[in-house]
Automatic annotation (TrEMBL):
Gene3D superfamilies: 3.10.20.30. This is 2Fe-2S ferredoxin. Coiled coil: none annotated. Its cofactor is [2Fe-2S] cluster. One of its GO terms (biological process) is P450-containing electron transport chain. Belongs to the adrenodoxin/putidaredoxin family. GO terms for molecular function: 2 iron, 2 sulfur cluster binding; electron transfer activity; metal ion binding. InterPro entries: 2Fe-2S_ferredoxin-like_sf, 2Fe-2S_ferredoxin-type, Adrenodoxin-like, Beta-grasp_dom_sf. Residues 6-108 form the 2Fe-2S ferredoxin-type domain. Keywords: 2Fe-2S, Iron, Iron-sulfur, Metal-binding. Transmembrane segments: none annotated.
Length: 108
């Protein structure tokens, strides 16, 4: 069963670190998984890359595809965005995320 799971490490806004095991066959965004796992993610726009309340930091130089235009435009408006900032609503759950570590930034 272990091969059917994606393991992601999540640090919340309070600094608590927890490992998530996500089924590989799930068709959700990272934001949806974080909300379902009861993390404090507002996701005001519902995953449309319009509000940045699902802002995360991708740790350890983990390689993800470049953000799309909408996501990049929204990240450009954030005063606290860094080169490793992403919107969790724009990251689809795939086996390529295995071992990723993130920190939830959220709305600030």
């Amino acid at each position: 069963m272990e091969n059917d799971l994606i393991n992601i490490t999540v640090e919340d806004q309070e600094g608590t670190v927890r490992d998530l095991e996500i089924p590989t066959d799930i068709s959700l965004s990272l934001m949806e998984v974080l909300k379902a796992s009861e993390y404090d993610i507002l996701a005001t726009c519902g995953g449309m890359a319009l509000c940045a309340t699902c802002h995360i930091q991708v740790l350890d130089d983990f390689e993800l595809p470049e953000p799309g235009d909408d996501e990049a435009d929204m990240l450009d408006t954030l005063h606290n965005a860094q080169s490793d900032s992403r919107l969790s609503c724009q990251i689809r759950i795939t086996p390529a995320l295995q071992g990723m570590r993130i920190k939830i930034i959220g709305a600030e």
